[in-house]
Description:
globular, alpha+beta
Amino acid sequence: MNYKNIVEGRFISRPNRFVAYAEINGRTEVCHVKNTGRCRELLTEGCTVWLEKAGCSAKRKTLYDLVAVRKGDRLINMDSAAPNRAAAEFLPKIFPGGSIRPEYSYGNSRFDFYIEHEGKKILLEVKGVTLEQDGIAMFPDAPTERGLKHINELTRCLGEGFETYLLFVVQMEDVRCFSPNDITHPAFGQALRQAADSGVKLLAYDCKVTPGSMEIRNGVEIRL
Length: 224
């Protein structure tokens, strides 16, 4: 997946989940943050960020979307919409010849993807991962009741004729492994282990990230 009109900036502050201030070409600009997570380890004062300049729209209050950040030697995509876009491009490699539909409603639930492949009906949820410590990618970076709900829905659908998958898209390169963040949200880690034991298939992949693109690349070991 690719962006258009990428510019480099310097992060100044983030007064709330949706808004940040960045210096771009010597001017302070108000920017939309495309990630409602905490991202405290990413958005540090003075760090280098990359932003997509948006087209003109009467509905927009900001001219830029913050999409990537430099953390040490790592370039990390932090756009929460990017994992699903990248997954849509990558899933045909996992399910060649399959029928892949995004945003699929089933019962009272809405899943990121519905796939028919080799006679199987598959429901798949995607989670973007931006938290990394000592080469270990972790999810979530904040407690997520929504994430727990998705795990429970995938487990429930196992008994209704579906195969179910949870795909963790690590929005950076060269991590050693992926693990649930038990310190931040122990209930999520417990639910993830129970789901895996029940038959929910877990996948994790890293990404090739540039300021203007993100592409799912290699499988990452999952350590539960």
